[in-house]
Design goal:
Layout lengths: L1 E6 L3 H11 L5 E7 L6 H14 L7 E3 L15 H7 L21 H12 L3 E5 L4 H9 L3 H4 L2 E5 L15 H4 L2 H8 L5 E4 L1 H4 L4 E2 H6 L6 H16 L1 H6 L1 E2 L2 H10 L4 E6 L1 E3 L9 E3 L10 E7 L1 H15 L7
Parallel strand pairs: 1-2, 1-4, 2-3, 4-5, 5-6, 6-12
Antiparallel strand pairs: 7-8, 9-12, 10-11
Helix pairs in contact: 1-2, 1-11, 1-13, 4-5, 5-8
The structure holds alpha-D-ribofuranose and calcium ion.
The site of alpha-D-ribofuranose has 15 residues, from helix 1, helix 7 and helix 13.
Length: 318
């Protein structure tokens, strides 16, 4: 399996990237950077720094979109996001700059080239706003039938949203882009709050990474801990849910979730802007999205623990 991660690198994106790099069955052929938890260029910088830190300085990073569709100005992170992920996106933890810089080629043409090269072997995992992926599908609609699959983190179908009563952050950041992606006909699995809110990473587990002899252990532990102490629900529970890592895990092992098929659309007007909901007009015709509604959380959590322990040269603590 060839993997591309489209990240707005951010704390849980960092954990998702770590999981991908710890997974031998997938070859990470590139990371694309989008705005979201941080501005686009900071997302690219963070992904490069993390790849270097985790022993993979060779992974190329490509710049994607820096603003939602139709926006006049480049996106800057809101105070709400800064409060959770830190101004640097990595929980105010200082990570060394990578020697590598972002590629000259842009993310849209990189993804299209990769689809043409690897076809059904290519899996794309977007864990930020879908702006770059919509641009890919607009520039080359044949990507929808050529690509292996898209496993995205975003949306909330059967549960409330996290930035409004009905909208999830990644979708809310660019609902028009999400509509293009959901109606493209590409084989899509949506990993939304319906399932990510049933997963958990404890403060204790993150702290255990500090025993690693690798510098990445303490840094990853501090990055995750910041999020756990600053995100309201995580502070209460002594640990956080695992949004983006679950999308990567499902790309590796689809049996972790149960899905239902639905012609998905996103509301773009008024108070419901950003809501993911079934589209009545396309009920019988599609295209359909596989929406995850159940997750085997213990199995996911075990997979995450085993892979991160191996990455950090730690004994697997069960
Ligand atoms: O709603 C959770 C999502 O928003 C995650 O991808 C997180 O990293 C942010 O992008
Ligand atoms: Ca994200």
């Amino acid at each position: 399996m060839k993997l591309i991660l489209d990240l707005d690198t951010g704390v849980d994106d960092a954990l998702a990237l770590s999981l991908a790099l710890a997974s031998p069955e997938a070859e990470l052929i590139g990371v694309t950077a989008v705005f979201g938890n941080v501005a686009r260029d900071l997302s690219a910088r963070n992904s490069l720094a993390l790849c270097a830190l985790l022993g993979r300085p060779d992974v190329p990073v490509y710049r994607g979109c820096d603003r939602p569709r139709g926006a006049q100005e480049a996106y800057v992170a809101t105070q709400e996001v800064i409060d959770i992920h830190g101004a640097n996106g990595l929980g105010e933890v200082a990570t060394p700059d990578a020697e590598r810089v972002p590629e000259e080629q842009d993310a849209v043409s990189f993804i299209i080239d990769a689809v043409n090269t690897y076809g059904k072997d290519l899996v794309l995992v977007p864990t930020g706003p879908l702006t770059t992926i919509a641009a890919v599908l607009e520039r080359d609609p044949s990507v929808a039938e050529k690509i292996g699959k898209i496993v995205l983190m975003g949306g909330a179908l059967t549960v409330c949203g996290n930035v409004s009563p009905c909208a999830e952050a990644n979708i809310a950041n660019d609902p028009e882009a999400a509509n293009i992606v959901f109606s493209s006909g590409a084989p899509i699995t949506m990993i939304g709050l319906d399932v990510t809110h049933r997963t958990f990473l404890s403060l204790e587990e993150a702290a255990s990474w500090k025993s690693s002899s690798k510098p990445a252990g303490a840094l990853l532990a501090d990055i995750a801990t910041y999020y756990m102490l600053h995100e309201a629900a995580a502070r209460e529970r002594g640990g956080c849910v695992q949004h983006d890592p679950l999308a990567v895990a499902t790309a590796l092992d689809p049996s972790l979730v149960r899905t239902i098929e639905l012609p998905l659309q996103v509301d773009t007007e008024g108070a419901f802007r950003g809501r993911t909901i079934g589209c009545n007009e396309r009920l019988l015709t599609g295209p359909y999205v596989n929406v995850a509604v159940e997750v085997d959380a213990p199995r996911f959590e075990r997979l995450f623990r085993e892979r991160i322990s191996a990455l950090l040269d730690l004994p697997n603590n069960g």
